[in-house]
Write a structure and sequence with these properties.
heterotrimer; A alpha+beta (335); B mainly alpha (218); C mainly alpha (537); A: 335 residues; alpha+beta; Immunoglobulin-like; 3 domains; five-stranded mixed sheet; 42% helix; elongated; B: 218 residues; mainly alpha; Four Helix Bundle (Hemerythrin (Met), subunit A)
């Protein structure tokens, strides 16, 4: 009996375990109530009108006065509907922008995790270097930013308890930011149909109290952090031959590049975000930085998604250290 | 508008009169052309999106195409459009020989167009610019992967257009036979007009194909 | 007394006995016989899709995926989607009732292009054969959405044959659409002005516009998909810099309006039925006509709401959400207008009306839950879950199929000249309504709780509601098989129907049942607006 009650509880009021989940639920239940009232109203009208005016019933059927039959009635039921819809639209849109483009808070410690989807598993790598498959361990209360990409087809990262979902695309990075606020084990599903074992591409997100999470980290064999591994790969793939400080090839210096605007040969300016850096490795001639010759070879089919993400982590770390170490020098660099 | 002697009028059973039938035929053809335009528009849209994304690569790839040959082809096709328009006028005025000549000229010019197009394909095949059916892709410009995307669109769009040319030529041949027989002048005039409408559409699409594939990159 | 009105002597000559033998059917140019060709073929596809659905629901009774292999399951839901969308729902009302009734309603002897009409049936059949070949030759496991790069680079199975089938059947839609538009424009009887047309004709007209404008985009998308798969020509292939999201855009640019191809004719049917069985002029005729056009038009602007979490710009998402809210307003207006039509009417509860009333209720719920998924923050949770599955089944099955059943019962006497057993028809209407809700309402809850769609095996917590859903599906199967039996029975044993058994208005009821081959002896002259019920209530 109690188990049954729990089950219904779980279906109607699923765990709300992220910082946005509560707000989504309020919106949902408000709409359930409003729309439920509309359903009751229409069903009642349907039954009452059709029974009261059933054929053969003796009721007054003299045509109504003109006032009632005119366009004011149409306007009268259109405007409230429209107004109600606009309220829901605005509410939902504001919340959506909040989920996918959260305002950056200064000094927030964001945990950056690399996610690769492939038929049919999820691969994660933590900033400490720990790898996981299908399960993702997180500390409660700390904001997480996932950088997601796919090795093959389109997948979708879906954690119902967090009320979030993001498609995971091949050759592209998408990101997803959220803050778990409850500890527990939560289902992770692939929501975009991806072939044979689509329904087996599931896992658990395990949210732990911070101290237990630290203990978990300690227990795991860490390996190197993605940034450190990326540094090694930077040399191994020969990137440093041209982009290194000692290089004599005319190639752009990548220190402090991440997140900065890059003027292009074509006259446009792009931001050196993850997607741009990725494309520059895979399709170097697509967007050539202004002032440099188009001589870089393509690394397409030669570098795995994992290694790319590590290189990115390295480039991103260069950005952070350069900002901390040499702010003055950067200013004098500017024209 | 169409003046015909009474005894030759054949109206399909569902129509009240010839005028209604002609209105229906013409509207039907126009609607069909709308659907054809939308068919091409999907491919053009996709091309435009990629053009925007890979502007430089696509422009460079476009410069490898035979824009002069294709330009000559444009002139040929537009001339055929003129010929079919003259045929329409002649048929409307009841001049059988002139109408037939116009139609034959249109067909001949259409065939020349296809021959030149075939030569273009052949030379691209030899240059290694046909990136499918296990053909090697020997493009030495920048960013060959994205350039390949451009050539794919080139072959899909021109191929789709060529398929429409073949259908159009088949239709024109049937109409030419009907014109040669000349059973019912008013009817033939309508048929020539409707076939001409289709041919005009094929012309216009070619102009768009030419501009968006050959000229945009120049 | 009522039976006297309904029954009458059979006419000596009518379209059904105007010719005999196979050639008289397969080479016919009579729109009424072509409608029969469609009736038979779409019924076949409906039960094929239904069989796939039955197996899916049987599998989902248990969470472990023990009845079918994952591969078989994936092929079944793909087959179900492809068959139901393209070979049943899209052609359903237009090719059957539209074909049969449009010329009768506008007072014409036939459609503008009878030969084209027959051709579009053959095109439909050829497309259907390709799809069946695909189903037999290994099946297809991409889902009906064919998303790249899965469909082009990864899926095994007969993707090409299925895509070819869908491509071909698209031309059937296009040809039917052209035929209807031209017919409405050029073949209306004298005196039949645009605002005297029955709303069913308006709905067919708007549907045809959508068919003609949207289907070609699907065709070219499928061509691009096919060349990518066959020739290895990368169009959406991300490793060439192609964009799979572009495929989604192109696909939904057709497939969202396709939803309106399914629901607009249903709205037309319900307007006819409600007005007849309330014996009252439809409330707000012009508003109804314009809202049909508005839905058709706005339907082209909302495709992006299928892609709120696809990685498209979030501000594009905001715009598409706003437009999606706007497209639901005309639908809401229609619901209120149908209700207002009942006011001060003489409502009868014959089977067509029961089906129309269940349309109203189910379409309302489907529409309101559509508002949920149009709401951005909620769609993040609902997208690709059973909530969406439930929502579109309420619209397409609860809405479109209920209206199809209403039309089938309403015009059956006209089409066949026979009356069906009314009692059984009412029983069927009630079973379908109850079974439908039992099948699909639990899926809303499953979706909200997070059960993703297209899952062969699922988390154990979801089992109870899935059992409800499967139980409902078996009711639904009974509800749909019942009419097959009693309607076939009535063809032989039903009483002969009179010309106008429902005391309805409209030109189709002025000719005998079944109508003569030429429809009208002389072109009718129209003096009244549609639904002139108030003249002799």
């Amino acid at each position: 009996m109690a188990a049954d009650q729990d089950r219904w509880q779980l279906l109607l009021f699923p765990d709300a375990a992220s910082s946005v989940a509560g707000s989504v639920d309020i919106l949902f239940w408000t709409m359930v109530v409003v729309c439920g009232l509309i359903v009751v109203l229409v069903f009642t009208l349907l039954l009452v009108l059709s029974v009261r005016y059933r054929a053969g019933a003796r009721v007054d059927r003299t045509p109504s006065p003109k006032l009632f039959n005119n366009r004011w009635l149409e306007i009268g039921w259109t405007l409230p509907v429209l107004a109600g819809f606009l309220v829901f639209f605005g509410w939902g849109a504001a919340l959506y922008v909040d989920i996918f483009d959260p305002p950056a808070r200064d000094g927030e410690d964001v945990r950056q995790i690399n996610v690769i989807g492939k038929q049919w598993m999820w691969k994660f790598q933590h900033p400490e270097g720990i790898r996981e498959i299908n399960d993702l361990h997180l500390p409660v209360g700390q904001t997480v930013e996932l950088r997601l990409t796919s090795q093959d087809v389109i997948h979708s990262f879906f954690v119902p308890a967090f009320r979030i979902k993001q498609d995971v695309l091949p050759q592209r990075y998408t990101r997803l930011r959220f803050t778990p606020v409850k500890t527990g084990r939560f289902d992770l599903f692939c929501a975009e149909y991806c072939g044979l074992s689509h329904s087996g591409m599931v896992g658990k997100v395990v949210v732990m109290a911070p101290e237990r999470f630290q203990a978990w980290l300690q227990r795991r064999d860490r390996g190197e952090s993605p940034a450190r591994e990326g540094e090694r790969l930077f040399r191994q793939y020969g990137c440093s031959g041209c982009h290194g400080a000692a290089s004599r090839v005319n190639a752009p210096d990548l220190t402090g590049l991440y997140g900065k605007p890059v003027p292009l040969e074509s006259g446009e300016t792009v931001t050196a975000d993850a997607q741009y850096l990725r494309d520059s490795v895979m399709f170097p001639s697509r967007q050539v930085a202004a002032g440099y010759p188009d001589i870089m070879p393509s690394f397409k089919d030669q570098i795995s998604e994992e290694d790319l993400l590590k290189l990115l982590a390295y480039l991103q770390s260069l950005d952070e250290s350069s900002r901390a170490d040499a702010p003055r020098q950067k200013e004098t660099d500017a024209p | 508008m169409t003046r015909t002697p009474e005894h030759t009028v054949i109206v399909a059973h569902q129509f009240e009169n010839l005028e209604q039938q002609f209105d229906a035929d013409l509207l039907g053809m126009w609607l069909f052309l709308v659907t054809e335009a939308l068919l091409f528009s999907g491919a053009f849209l996709a091309l435009a999106v990629y053009y925007h994304q890979y502007h430089d690569t696509f422009s460079a790839a476009a410069r490898e195409l035979h824009w002069l040959l294709a330009g000559a082809n444009s002139v040929i096709l537009l001339t055929s459009g003129l010929a079919v328009a003259l045929a329409e006028q002649a048929a409307d005025q009841g001049r059988r020989r002139a109408a037939l000549l116009g139609l034959l000229a249109t067909i001949a010019l259409g065939l020349v167009f296809l021959a030149i197009k075939g030569y273009e394909y052949h030379s691209e095949y030899q240059a290694g610019l046909m990136p499918f059916l296990q053909q090697p892709f020997a493009y030495d410009g920048p960013n060959p992967h994205n350039a390949m995307l451009f050539y794919n669109f080139y072959f899909v769009l021109t191929g789709l257009h060529a398929a429409h040319m073949v259908i159009g030529l088949a239709v024109l041949m049937v109409i030419a036979v009907l014109t040669w027989r000349w059973r019912d002048g008013a009817r033939v005039a309508r048929q020539v007009r409707i076939a001409g409408l289709y041919w005009a559409f094929v012309d216009i699409v070619w102009v768009l194909v030419y501009c968006s594939l050959y000229l945009v990159g120049r | 007394m009522i039976r006297d009105v309904r029954t009458g002597p059979a006419p000596r000559h009518h379209y059904l006995n105007a010719g005999h033998g196979l050639a008289s059917w397969f080479l016919t140019k009579d729109h009424k016989r072509i409608a029969w060709l469609y009736f038979v073929s779409i019924t076949g596809f409906f039960f094929l899709g239904g069989l796939a659905a039955t197996l899916i629901r049987l599998e989902l009774i248990t969470p472990n995926g023990d009845l079918l292999s994952s591969d078989a399951y994936n092929r079944l839901f793909s087959l179900h989607g492809i068959v139901m969308v393209w070979f049943f729902l899209i052609p359903s009302i237009p090719t059957t009732f539209g074909n049969f009734l449009l010329p009768l309603m506008v007072g014409a002897r036939d459609l503008a292009f009878p030969r084209l009409n027959l051709l579009s049936w053959y095109v439909y059949i050829i497309g259907g054969l390709f799809t069946l070949i695909a189903a037999v030759a290994g099946g297809i496991d991409t889902g009906w959405t064919f998303y790249t790069p899965y469909s082009t680079l990864f899926a095994n199975g007969a993707v090409l044959a299925a895509a070819t089938g869908v491509f071909i059947v698209g031309f059937s839609s296009i040809l039917t659409g052209i035929n209807f538009i031209v017919t409405v424009h050029t073949m209306r009887a004298p005196g039949l002005t645009w605002f005297r047309l029955p709303l069913f004709v308006w709905a067919q007209y708007a549907t045809s516009l959508v068919m003609v404008l949207a289907t070609p985009v699907l065709s070219v998308t499928l061509v691009l998909l096919a060349v990518e798969r066959v020739f290895g020509v990368g169009i959406f292939d991300p490793s060439l810099g192609g964009d799979p999201v572009l495929f989604e855009h192109l696909f939904w640019f057709y497939s969202h309006p396709a939803v309106y191809i399914m629901i607009l004719p249903a709205m037309g049917v319900v307007s006819e039925v409600v007005s007849c069985f309330a014996h009252k002029r439809i409330f707000g005729y012009r508003v109804m006509a314009f809202s049909i056009l508005a839905i058709a038009l706005f339907g082209f602007l909302v495709w992006g709401h299928h892609m709120f979490v696809s990685g498209q710009s979030i501000y594009a998402g905001v715009a598409f959400s706003l437009l999606s809210f706007l497209v639901s307003v005309p639908s809401a207006i229609k619901i209120f207008n149908w209700l207002a039509t009942l006011y001060k009417g003489h409502v009868r509860f014959d089977a067509p009306m029961l089906f129309a009333m269940s349309f109203l209720g189910l379409f309302l719920i489907g529409g309101l839950t559509g508002v949920f998924v149009a709401t951005l923050a909620l769609d993040v949770q609902m997208h690709d879950t059973y909530f969406v599955v439930a929502h579109f089944h309420y619209i397409m099955v609860g809405g479109a199929v209920s209206a199809y059943m209403a039309a089938l019962h309403f015009w059956w006497p006209k089409i066949t000249g026979r009356l069906y057993p009314e009692m059984w028809a009412r029983v069927s209407a009630i079973i379908v309504f109850a079974g439908f809700n039992l099948t699909f309402f639990p899926q809303y809850i499953l979706g909200w709780a997070g059960m993703p769609r297209r899952y062969h095996a699922y988390v154990e917590d979801f089992q109870l509601l899935n059992v409800f859903s499967s139980a409902g599906a078996s009711m639904l199967a009974v509800g749909y098989l019942l009419p097959l039996i009693y309607l076939l029975w009535s063809l032989r044993y039903g009483a002969h129907a009179s010309a106008n058994p429902w005391n309805a208005r409209g030109l189709e009821w002025t000719v005998p049942s079944p109508p003569p081959e030429e429809n009208f002896e002389r072109p009718p002259r129209v003096e009244h607006e549609a639904y002139a019920y108030d003249t002799d209530a």
